[in-house]
Amino acid sequence: MVWTIEANKLTRRFGEKVAVDQLDLQIRPGEIYGFLGPNGAGKSTTIRMLCGILAPTSGGGCVGGFDIVQESESIKTVIGYMSQHFGLYHDLTVEENIDFYTGLYLKKRSEIFRERERVIQEIELKPYRKYLAKHLSGGWKQKLALASAISHRPKILFLDEPTAGIDPVSRRTLWDILYKLAQSGMTLFITTHYMEEAERCNRIGFIWNGRLVASDAPGRIKSTVMRESLFSIQGEPMERCFDLLKSSSHVIDVNFYGDELHVVMPPGFDGMDLLKEELKEKGIEQISIRQISPSIEDVFVSLSRQSS
């Protein structure tokens, strides 16, 4: 297998702080890889090293066939980058912004024009091509940022929380475009805090305190990584039920999920009847308890507990 992105014991220190700690990655061509972790876990530092912007303290890797240390400038010719913050020029139109970024890679005016027209068509920007960027909504600004990031036909696209702050319809539309890019052979490396977006990725990796603590397909992550037992509990009054479960010696964690509570128990917990009796003794009625499969968010929280 020839990996599009590969990292071997990639490490970056800032003084005494280890931001990324011996990280290993192998990402296939055309794969959508979700990179998850809390703020400060090392996601942005990892991206900066993979993009050839920041030199690692130790370890290494290859991106698009180029060594991230020895060939960092060459990496920039085969990657695109899209930030969570709109980084384009507000006083330029949609097509002027695309022209500017395409011109960083292509010099012939005919080539710039051709690629601009291609991405305007692909990202469905035609109705807004003469609009100033500052007049676009959040979702359309992100579409423009995406168009600019892929205008030079990169092999690999890094997206740092690309859907942060935009509405659900715009998010879904943007993901439809991302799927088409992956199907064309482009490799996508995405950071996100939206757990439902993680479900859309081919594989996901969890980073915690600079260490990659899990990496696999979302389905396998959910079925194999979380060791604790997970239950859905409903009882009236819910707030009282939450408080009692929070203080129970049997419970590791409890959180509200709509009209139910997700309750984390020790591995192999089989004391549901005991727990139900305890709640009834405290005045909780109409109790419903069932074991459930974890969501990606449940796994994320579990991994955070295990790694702390």
The radius of gyration computed from the alpha-carbon positions, rounded to a whole number of angstroms, is 23 Å
Q: What is the correct CATH architecture of the largest domain? A: 3-Layer(aba) Sandwich
Q: Tell the overall outline.
A: globular
Proportion of helical residues: 25-40%
Order of helices and strands: EEEHEEHEHHHEHEHEEHEHEEHEH
CATH topology of the largest domain: Rossmann fold
**What do the pLDDT scores average to?**
91
- Give the strand order, joined by hyphens, for the main sheet: 6-7-8-3-9-10
Total number of domains: 2
* Annotated CATH homologous superfamily of the largest domain: P-loop containing nucleotide triphosphate hydrolases
Low-pLDDT sequence parts: none
Please give the alpha-carbon distance between the first and last residues.
Answer: 34 Å
Query: Which class do the helix and strand fractions yield?
Result: alpha/beta
Q: What can be said about the biggest beta sheet?
A: 6 strands, mixed
Strand content: 25-35%
Number of helices: 11
The counted number of beta strands is: 14
CATH level 1 class label of the largest domain: Alpha Beta
